Amino acid sequence: MTGCAHETDATHVHRHRSGAIVTSAQATLHCLTGCVVGEVAGLGIGVSLSLSVVATIILATALAYVSGFALGALPVMRREGVSLIRAIRLIWIGEAVSIGVMEIAMNGADYAIGGMSAGSVLAPTFWLGVAVAIPAGFIAAWPVNWFLLRRGLKNCH
Length: 157
Prior knowledge:
By secondary structure, the chain is an all-alpha fold. Helix content is 79%, strand content 0%.
């Protein structure tokens, strides 16, 4: 399944022709948006409170999951007219896997750059870590989203 659940037949045919690569890139960008909100908030809180790197990673990952699931569930709630819990049940497997892969790559890249160890969110190293982590997360999750979409385990939102 390469199309989105809310597409018309004409849109589905267009997406099918343009390939799963475009659809998976769009799904990955959507997922990345939610992850970045939580990730940056968690990193900022962790650095500002001088938490350990491990505590900062745990906080950033937890907030990325919360914001990622929220951003994924809201369109499903509107489109399907379902509750938050039902929307999460519909999207959980695709989102959990995609966010997990994205978070591993993002936190790994940020750690390698030293952004988590920056003395302040005002330090250039902090923002360099974020700037490197975002494309790393996208690159890591794109093929995963392609696979999930092809297997019908994830839908566009």
